[in-house]
Amino acid sequence: MATAPSPHGPLAGVRVVELAGIGPGPFAAMLLGDLGADVVRVDRPGGTDLALDPAFDTTNRNKRSVVVDLKEPGGADLVLELVDRADVLIEGWRPGVAERLGVGPESCLSRNPSLVYGRMTGWGQEGPLAPRAGHDIAYIAVTGTLGMIGTPGGPPAVPANLLGDYAGGSLYLVVGVLAALHHARADGTGQVVDAAIVDGAAHLSTMIHGMLAAGGWQDRRGANLLDGGCPFYGVYETADGGHMAVGALERRFHDEFAALLGIEDLAAAHGDTARWTELREAVARRFRARTRAEWTDVFEGSDACVAPVLSLREAPSHPHLSARGTFRDHDGLTQPAPAPRFSRTPTTIRSAPARPGADAEAVARDWAVPGLAARASHPHRKAPQ
Prior knowledge:
This protein is an alpha/beta fold. About 35% of the residues lie in helices and about 15% in strands. It has helices spanning about 25-35, 75-85, 95-100, 105-110, 135-140, 160-185, 195-205, 205-215, 250-260, 275-285, 290-300, 320-325, 360-365, 370-375, and strands at about 15-20, 40-45, 65, 90, 115-120, 190-195, 235, 245, 305-310, 325-330, 335. Strands 3-2-1-4-5-6 form a six-stranded parallel β-sheet, with helices on both faces. Strands 7-8-9 form a three-stranded antiparallel β-sheet, covered by helices on one side. Helix 1 (about 25-35) packs across helix 6 (about 160-185), helix 5 crosses helix 7 (about 195-205) and helix 6 packs across helix 7 (about 195-205). The protein is elongated, with a radius of gyration of 24 Å.
C-alpha cells in the first residue's frame, strides 16, 4: 500500500482527484504527482481496458488509489466528497459521460467553486467529432502533424502515441490546469479546462505553419530542413545495422561534422541545395563503413551534433543520461525520472504504481472521507451493467 505523499516538489499540498482512464489523462495526473501533488486515482471495479499489470503501469506512480463504482447508489457522492477537498479534478471520458455519472463540472463546481476541472479528450468537448471514438493516430492525422513525418513517397511514420496523447494532450492539460490553478488561487474562482489532443497537436506545429506561409516549408514529407529532407539533419545506417542521428544544421557544426566523417571536400555543399543529393549519398556511404559504436567514438566530445540512435533498453545506460539520473530504478522498475528539475523543491519517485483500491483506508483518513474505507470495493469485481 502506498504511503502518504512526502512534501516534495513545487505542488506539495495540492490535492488532485483523477477519474481513472487510459492514455493522456493518467500521464497528466502522473506529472502532477511527480511535481508533488497528492493524487488520488478513483479506479472503477474491474479496472480499465488497458491490458497491463497494474504493478508495471508506471503512469500510476506517485498516486494513491481508491475504488468507487459510480454506477452504484452513493458512488458519485463519495467522489463529490473528495471533490469538496480537492484543488483539481481530471477526467478523460467522452463528453457527457461525467455528467451522466453525476460528477460533471456543474455538480463539482457547485460544491467547490474554486475547483479546476480538467477534461482530457481527443476531439474536444464540442464540434462534429466530439462524441465519436478515436485514438492518438486519428487526432494527429487530421491536424497535419502525422502527414509531416516520414520519407518521400512512403506513408507517414507513426510516432508511437507520444506526439498526440502525451505532447498534444497530457502536457497541454497540465499547462492548462496549472494556469487555472494560479487563477483560482488569485481570486477563488475555478473553471473547466478543455484540453483536446487535436488542439494541442495543431498548436505544436505553430512554427511550421509560419514557415509554410513564408514559403520556407514545402507541404510534403522529406523535403524540408527539419523533416529529413536535408542531408545534414537525418538518420543514417551504420555497418552493423545501427543508426546515427545527424543534426549539423549550422555551418560551423557542419564543418566539424564533415571533417570527422572524412568528407571535407564536400563541406561547401552545406549551402548548395543543388548538391544535397551528392552530399546525402556521400554521408550515407561513409556511415555504412563503420559500426555504430565506432562512429560514436569518432564524434564523442565534438560539436558535430551527432548521436547514436539507442533503443529503449539502451538509453538508461548512456553516459550522459546516467550522469544526470535521467532514468531511475524504483522498486525494480527502470523508468524516466520526474522532469523538469527544481532547485528549491526537488521532485522524486515517491511510490510505486498504485494498485487499484489499495489506499482506501489511508485516503479516507487523510482526506477525511470515511465512506471510502467503509465501502471499499474489491478491485477485480465487475461493475453491474
